Amino acid sequence: MREVAVLGVGMHPWGKFENKSVTDLCRDAVEAALKDAGVEWPDIQAVAAASSRFSGGKGWGLNGNDIVEEMGPTGVPVYNLSAGCAAGGNAFNIGYSLVAGGLYDIVLVMGGEKMPKGFIQMSGLEETTDPEYLRQVCVGMPGPAFWALLCQRRIAEHGTTERQLAQIAVKAHKNGALNPNARFRQEFTVEDVLNSRVVSWPLRLYEICPVSDGAAAAVLCSAEVARRYTTSPVWVASSTVATAQFDDGVPRGLATVVPPGLTYHSEAATAVKKAFEGAGVGPRDLSFVELQENTVYYELAFPEEWGLCQPGEAEHLVESGETLPTGKLPINPSGGFLCFGEATTAMGVWQVYEMTEQLRGQAGARQVPNAKVALGQTLGLGSNATAVILKR
Amino acid sequence: MTTNRVPVVDGMFAETADGARLLGSKCAGCGAPYFPKSAVCHNPRCREKRIEPASFGPRGTLWSFAVQHYAPPAPVKYDEPFKPYALGLVDLRDGLRVLGRLQVDKLENLKIGMDVELIVARLCADKDGNEVTTWMFKPL
To answer: Does residue B6 lie in a domain region?
Structure first.
């Protein structure tokens, strides 16, 4: 395996853009990434694109082909990757693998999405063979209710308070307010969060990520190419993909087995574990983490499930400010999904943008001091998960 | 005019003289339970993969719950006007962990770890005035 560098990154800011297509958003992100890398479009030897769930792609998830047509057909090979909300991370992994395996020297990775209004409807299929349809029609359980159920269990196990949950949203907005690409840039107080309406008890509106439009892109290259363009590239220490274990305690449809132990989100835990192994680093080496917090609950659950802190310690880290950029375990210094809103299939590439800015020391007021190693993670429908560790 | 009771989806649950049951399947080889029923055993370590019809319930323990406070979009079904409802994840005695509505008088009485019983109960009325039913769990 060859060393792989992130040569350039680009982003279209997150928001709602009535008058732009997903390809408009992606073109902005790709042009910015090419410029940042210092390469031209014809230099790109392959494209790994997240297949959008809701927009463009000719209805077939061919969003990589859309961007190739937009930038100018060069005959470049295109890989369109579908992995639910992990699609961006999945596309990154394929782009990384193509360079690491020596097939290509310069690869473009991108993801873009325009989201319909409201909370995400997972499936859209109205078939009694579709587990998500059955969940909605028989039980009446939209996504936020499932997150609420997991959060309620944590409250029972660890005594998490409503205030602690709210503090995570406050922290997110403190960071997001400093990020020019974030959609929601106002700061909140704990009281603001506690006064937002209950969506699914125990979760409130400001504790759940909204949906947004957005696009991000990254140019990956071999070490040999990187040295031609820069003296201080950001390196991909590892990139992994995983799916869930059979005995995972979180049902993906209506039911699962009563698990033998505590196994939640095993796909994410496996992806992160493999990423640590591949990079040859451990939790103590991380300068910060960009994790998928569809709701504040995940900022408590994930760090523990991945061994970044002890069980029951996450609430304390939040309360004592240790998850701020200046703390000992900074989480989502970007402002996270809460401040950007989830442009589902773009998020894995967006994380790479945010991590790269931090590792270059270009994150401005939200900069993590002396950031050297960072972990990113996504989780998607179908029990897809990805992880990436970048370092400088 | 009589009101017909119609299941929200056919073939997923039944009311027996002995209480409600979820209709699924079980692997005779490794014991893994499936709901809804599965054509094959999905346990990657099971070498036998002998699927048989099986029913589950009625007793279990509430693993966790949530209270849905806003009216969710279709295809979720409810009677107008929308009222907040509870749903939970229940560990049945026979090894199945399953989602379901919770039928409770007072939402604040819900408690993780409480014993619950599977029932078949009204979800909503359909446009023809039939009573649409689904499986739910009721605290004991």
So the answer is: no
**What is the chain B residue with the closest CA to A133?**
B75
* CB-nearest partner of A140 from B87, B97, B98: B87
Number of A:B CB contacts under 8 A? 120
Of A359, A376, A377, A356, the C-alpha closest to A368 is A359
Q: Please give the C-alpha separations between residue B51 and each of A172, A321, B24, B34, in angstroms, as whole numbers.
A: 48, 52, 10, 9
Using a CB-CB cut-off of 8 Å, the residues of chain A touching B65 are 149, 152
Give B1 to chain A, closest Cα distance, Å: 26
A140-151 per-position pLDDT tens digit: 999 899 999 999
Q: Give the pLDDT of residue A334.
A: 98
Whether residue B122 lies inside any domain: the answer is: yes
**Is the pLDDT score of A112 beyond 70?**
yes
Q: Give residue ranges of A with CB < 8 Å to any B CB.
A: 118, 121, 126, 128, 133-142, 145-146, 148-153, 156, 197-203, 246, 249, 251, 253-259
Tell me the domains of chain A and their CATH numbers.
Answer: 4-117+211-391 (3.40.47.10)
Q: Is A141 in contact with B99 (Cβ distance < 8 A)?
A: yes
B-chain residue closest to A260, CA distance? B95
Q: Is the pLDDT of residue A119 over 70?
A: no
B19 domain residue, yes or no: yes
B70 within some domain: yes
pLDDT at B2 over 80: no
CA distances from A319 to A54, A78, A163, B83 (A): 37, 46, 9, 35
Q: How many domains does chain B have?
A: 1
Q: Which domain holds residue B77?
A: 11-139
A167 has pLDDT over 60? yes
Identify the band that residue A123 occupies on the pLDDT scale cut at 50, 70 and 90: low
Name the token pair of A61: 């998830």
pLDDT score, position A276: 98
Instruction: Kindly state the tokens that stand for A160.
Output: 């998490």
Is the pTM above the cut of 0.90?
yes
Report the amino acid identity of residue A189: T
Q: How far is CA A106 from CA A3, A11, A96, B134, in A?
A: 12, 19, 10, 54
Residue A129 has a pLDDT of: 85
